[in-house]
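Appendix C: a fully annotated inverse folding record. The material below is reproduced so that readers can follow the format used throughout the book. The structure is listed first as tokens, followed by the designed sequence.
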């Protein structure tokens, strides 16, 4: 594409009064159906470009598969995942999902025409983010000029103004002649609340490195927002998906030696079709305090059958409080009406890993291992968290997934030993 493709003849007076290309702001969300002239199937595409958040995402859904690339310019990596979806609802063991993260300089997109500018030469780490214009291939620096007015099926019979530009970009490998059909102002706003949106985008041109290869795409845009509000969920890898993390620059935080946390265990069943059966059921709730240095721990719980078996108790509907003296092996149990001090076998309780009395480290309690790989940010119960995942195989050689999410792990300012040590000492007398 060259300037000769943009040559339009207007008088000086006409040029002064020509419509100017609308501004798209610093960030945008665009959703559209994309048809490739050389492909047999259309694709649904969603773009999220957050300039000030230094992040962007492109997802493409076609023939029951979703391809997505998440650009983290602040860290200089791109995370790509592929989800295969069956033709019917429900879970299928044949679904093979993949996810990996690479340095931006090593990134190779699945679709060349659907990619954002990245540097192939800069050093690793934080990258300079492109402008929204370059991401959408529109406006400056591409010298878009007014071409014509049109009303047609491409724009759903909404009157539009066509702006034409030349897009020559090495990062996308194509030299494109681009037409943006901007809907004119209507008596009402578009669904996104915008006064004008690009209703139809047409791009055509050869591969810069192979003149025999051409791309010709048409984008039908029902949804476009400029400078929208973004949420972290828009840029997350789907929950439950394990990612191979090649940059290996995200280290696990150190687990403190003294901490507390709450955990609720939910159980559910799937029927033969993979659908949820009888909903979720809460089976246990625990609040845990742990001090590795002075070897004291406490669990307040609504016990499961396994908990009752480990503690040597009969079935009860009451809440149980268990205080563990990890030095002596004694456990003090109490509920609303009774309390008892019991010696518990070290191999059947929560904080020992061997019969000889070896105590689990804080990392072992949380399941932290060197095999965990960084997945990215996620949101759990409204709280943003960093997530690591690990793939493990059971004895039947079937792949299982374990996901470890860190919301906040802070060292206790007041040790639990302060309020419990006297009680534990009294028991041992």
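Designed amino acids, in order:
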């Amino acid at each position: 594409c060259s300037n000769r493709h943009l040559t339009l003849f207007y008088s000086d007076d006409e040029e002064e009064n020509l419509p100017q290309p609308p501004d798209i702001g610093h960030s945008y969300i665009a959703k559209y159906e994309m048809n490739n002239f050389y492909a047999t199937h259309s694709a649904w595409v969603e773009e999220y470009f957050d300039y000030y958040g230094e992040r962007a995402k492109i997802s493409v859904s076609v023939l029951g598969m979703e391809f997505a690339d998440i650009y983290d310019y602040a860290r200089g990596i791109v995370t790509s995942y592929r989800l295969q979806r069956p033709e019917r609802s429900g879970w299928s063991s044949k679904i093979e999902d993949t996810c990996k993260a690479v340095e931006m300089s090593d990134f190779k997109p699945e679709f060349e025409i659907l990619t954002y500018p990245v540097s192939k030469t800069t050093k690793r780490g934080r990258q300079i983010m492109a402008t929204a214009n370059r991401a959408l291939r529109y406006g400056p620096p591409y010298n878009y000029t007014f071409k014509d007015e049109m009303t047609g099926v491409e724009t759903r019979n909404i009157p539009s103004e066509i702006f034409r530009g030349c897009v020559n970009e090495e990062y996308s490998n194509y030299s494109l002649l681009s037409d943006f059909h901007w809907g004119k102002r209507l008596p009402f706003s578009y669904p996104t609340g915008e006064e004008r949106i690009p209703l139809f985008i047409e791009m055509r041109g050869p591969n810069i490195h192979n003149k025999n290869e051409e791309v010709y795409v048409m984008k039908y845009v029902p949804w476009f927002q400029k400078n929208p509000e973004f949420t972290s969920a828009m840029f997350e890898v789907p929950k439950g998906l394990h990612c191979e993390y090649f940059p290996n620059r995200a280290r696990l935080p150190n687990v403190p030696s003294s901490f507390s946390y709450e955990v609720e265990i939910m159980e559910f069943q799937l029927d033969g079709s993979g659908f949820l059966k009888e909903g979720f059921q809460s089976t246990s709730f625990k609040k845990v305090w742990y001090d590795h240095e002075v070897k004291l721990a406490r669990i307040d719980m609504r016990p499961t059958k396994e908990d009752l078996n480990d503690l040597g108790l009969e079935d009860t509907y009451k809440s149980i409080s268990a205080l563990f003296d990890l030095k002596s092996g004694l456990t003090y149990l109490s509920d609303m009406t009774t309390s008892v001090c019991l010696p518990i076998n070290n191999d059947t309780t929560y904080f020992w890993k061997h019969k000889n009395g070896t105590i689990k480290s804080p990392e072992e309690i949380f399941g932290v291992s060197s095999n965990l790989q960084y997945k990215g940010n996620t949101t759990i119960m409204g709280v943003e968290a960093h997530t690591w995942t690990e793939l493990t195989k059971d004895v039947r050689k079937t792949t299982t997934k374990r996901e470890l999410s860190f919301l906040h792990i802070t060292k206790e300012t007041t040790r639990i030993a302060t309020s419990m040590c006297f009680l534990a000492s009294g028991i041992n007398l």
